[in-house]
Amino acid sequence: MVAQANTVGTQKKGFLQWARSRKGQQAIIIVAFMIIPLALLFTFTYLPFGKMVGYSFMKMKYAGARTFVGWKNYASVFSRKDCFSALKLSLYYMGGSIVQLVLALYLATVLSFKVKGGNVFKGFMFFPYLINGIAIGFIFKFFYTRGFVFDTVLQWCGFQLDNLPYWLKDQSINNISLVGTSVWRYFGQNMVLFIGAIMSVDSELYEAAMLDGANRFQQFIYIILPSIKTIVTLNVILSITGSLSAFEPPYVITDGANGTATYFIVMHDIAHTQQKVGLASAMAVVLLLIIFVATILQKLFFKYVFRNSEDEDFNATKRRDKKLAKYADRKAGR
Amino acid sequence: MKLKKVTALTLAAAMTFSLVGCGGNDAPAETPADTSTDAPAADDSADDAADEADAADDSAAADDSAAAGGLTYASIQLGEDNMDITTTIKFIHHKTDREEDGTIADLVSKFNEMYPNITVETEGITDYAEDALLRLSTGDWGDVMFIPAVDAADLSTYYLPYGTVEEMSELVNFADQWKDAAGNCYGVGYMGNAQGILYNTKVFADAGITELPKTPDEFIDALQAIKDNTDAIPLYTNYAAGWTMGGQWDAFLGAITTGDETWLNQKFAHTAEPFKDNGDGTGAYALYKILYDAVEQGLIEDDYTTTDWEGCKAMINNGEIGTMVLGSWAIAQMKEAGDHPDDIGYMPFPITVNGQQYTTAGPDYCYGINVNASDDNKAAAMTFVKFMVEESGWCDLEGGYPISKTAPTSFVFDGVNVVTNVTALTGEEDVMNEMNAESELSFNAGGDAKVQSIVEAAATGSESFDDIMADWTERWNAAQEELGIEVQY
Q1: Which CATH superfamily is domain A80-333 in?
Q2: Does residue B350 share a domain with residue B220?
Q3: Where are the alpha helices (DSSP H) in B70-138?
Q4: Tens digits of residue pLDDT in B348-367
Q5: Are residues B118 and B180 in the same domain?
């Protein structure tokens, strides 16, 4: 008994001593500081997510009884016609995001050099991003209405109304019309991000390149692009991921009708109109996995692209080293 | 070294703790959830039982007091009784637009011509369905309100009965909308809604249509005549708004298309082939085929994807639209949207079952009187309600289906049987909801997409109407199988 009490006493003393020591204080403070953010992260991110994953194995509505159905929801995500055909629409949005990034990069490059009225242009092109997505939906609903804004403008340019398509009715182009609104909205934001990155490029490099006889395009390819590759990668990944989860334009403009229902809209409909919460949760989990895969693939792709460029550099140094060695040899051999 | 060890230990401890935390979190969260699903149900039923007991008591008391005070809707003679009451009553309602344009103030001033001593304060509430319930729970909301979604068992705790449903039925339509187990009537509608088709009488006249169409074929012919003889859009679908498709077309399922009041809520879910072609222009098949045919034959607006709900009101008023499929509540809005209110007409849905046309009708919001108000206020409030229903002409002003059986009305539905889809059998109340969710067709429950898809299929020719109906039947049968619902019809 006594011995036991003694050992407990020494242990306790040891802990207290340690807790009072500088290192002990450090450790305690680190843990204490980490607990709050970790607790918040857990409560508001991982716990709800875990719950959703749990729901995806159940047949349930928002209210009422829940029954466990195993993988049935996942099976129906893959067997239903509407889920994966909706993902095909994402290809439109991905195509749109490529156009958007190229356009943004081009304008950013132009605008980051001295241009008359550059700031005004920047403002005009960034402006759509500031408008609420719902408002944009309404703007474009009228914009695309037969005989309204867009058709009128095209008629000024000499088109006949009879030859113009129905922008939202014709199922072969209505998704392109919707993607157009998304490009219109986001390319300004991408452009501003690119401009910010380009600004950080040392301007002496341009001068040096110019002295070496590089034209603007070569400057872009060999100086600007490598310097902002991080931000380009980020933007591409965000845009592709965003196009997998496109929601606002089709939801507001066409209500997902007429063949414009993206994966998100199908999910929304299943969760809220049909109240099949389990199935919708399973769809969300599947989409998450798809986004993971897409992101990893892009990461690998960019890694491959960048390694190539590094290889080139590496070869160049190798060649230079060889040349230098040769030179030294010649010098030594003389 | 020691620090590392201790940190590692602490971290490990923290992690196990947090794991235990979530394990512990989960377990209690699950179990109470499980029990709680049962427990509240039990509580509820206990409450219900208690409430019903209360209700019985209250209604007995109310009956007594009604008998003693003689305060029933039927017994009040407008302009003779309650002339000596001087008080102020408060009326809360959802018609904010009518509050703003002064209509309600006009009605109140009419009331004050007859009853100058009763002051009526009115308040229009946005988001009424929710706010009214909140105010109701506080008890201090006023004297007259439109009854929000309360349980039948709670009616007597909040509202004063107008009398028995039996005696009220002689005076007003839909007296059984708010009734308790004892058969007392607690709500009187301010206007009724009927289902039919809105049309422009001038367009019909210009198109040479002299008799209102009564069958799907006649209706399509009428639309064709409008297209041939006028510049108007024969049928404006309001496709883009969504709710104007599912919400409005589904409303004709049931008695209107089959002539059977029990079909929608009692038979539909148990029917093997609810969408089969009856061959005589009746049933769900004929209903949706009208839409398909109209679209296929180009009898709708040019670009249906950009229809504009606000814009269509002025268009039908000005004779740019021939017909629109909307409930009778829309009449007033269409009349007010332009300079030709007299051109707006309303006709029964063009389906005839065994030589009869049917329409379903029901009340909009109903007046309820605060049971906790003072006796004077109760009497004043009931007088006010009776005036509003019988004399004010509000219902007619809104173009509503009549509530009062004696007040003059301009709502003409000649030769049409007005019926109500009877409610589901006891124990099967949720069957339609389950079927709607499982089949994802969502009839009368936000299933706009399926009606929109009819328009798309007809316009692009991607799917024949029979294929659509076959697909629906398949989904319906799959849902019946999944839910274990017996097929009886």
Answers
A1: MetI-like (1.10.3720.10)
A2: yes
A3: 96-100, 103-114, 128-138
A4: 999 999 888 898 888 888 99
A5: yes
The reply to whether B9 falls in a domain is no
pLDDT at B3: 52
Phi, psi torsion values for B362, nearest 5 degrees: -155, 165
Domain boundaries, chain A: 2-55, 80-333
First to last CA, chain B: 81
How far is Cα A220 from Cα A226, in angstroms, rounded to an integer? 9
What's the token pair of residue B379? 């009497």
Which chain A residue shows the shortest CA-CA distance from B11? A31
Q: What is the CATH number of the domain that holds B126?
A: 3.40.190.10
Residue B381 exposed, middle or buried by CB count within 10 Å (0-12, 13-18, 19+): buried
The two structure tokens encoding residue B136 = 């109701």
Q: How far apart are CA A38 and CA A324, in angstroms?
A: 55
Find the CB nearest B304 among A47, A142, A169.
Answer: A169
- Overall domain count for chain B: 2
* Structural domain contains residue B3: no
Indicate the DSSP class of residue B172: B
CA distance B426 to B197: 33
* This model's pTM is above 0.80: no
pLDDT means over runs of 10, chain A (334 residues) = 51 78 90 92 94 91 81 90 85 92 92 86 90 88 86 89 86 90 91 90 87 87 87 88 88 86 90 87 93 89 72 64 80 66
Closest CA to B268 of B425, B92, B103: B425
Mutate to test the interface with A, among B306, B452, B455 (most CBs of A within 10 A): B306
Residue listed under structure tokens 């980020």: A234
Pairing mode of beta strands B144-146, B87-93? parallel
CA distance B303 to B301: 6
Contacts of A32 in chain B (CB under 8 A): none
B140 and B219 housed in the same domain:
no
Q: Distance of CA A298 to CAs A240, A295, B328, Å?
A: 9, 5, 56
Q: CB distance from A251 to chain B under 8 Å?
A: no
CB-based contact (8 Å) between A250 and chain B? Answer: no
pLDDT at B146: 92
Question: Does B450 lie in the same domain as B397?
Answer: no
B14 chain-A contacts, CB cut-off 8 A: 31, 35
Q: Which domain holds residue B118?
A: 76-146+148-186+365-408
Contacts of B2 in chain A (CB under 8 A): 18, 23
Distances (CA, A) of A247 to A87, A178, A267, B245: 12, 11, 10, 22
**What chain B residue is nearest to A30 in terms of C-alpha separation?**
B7
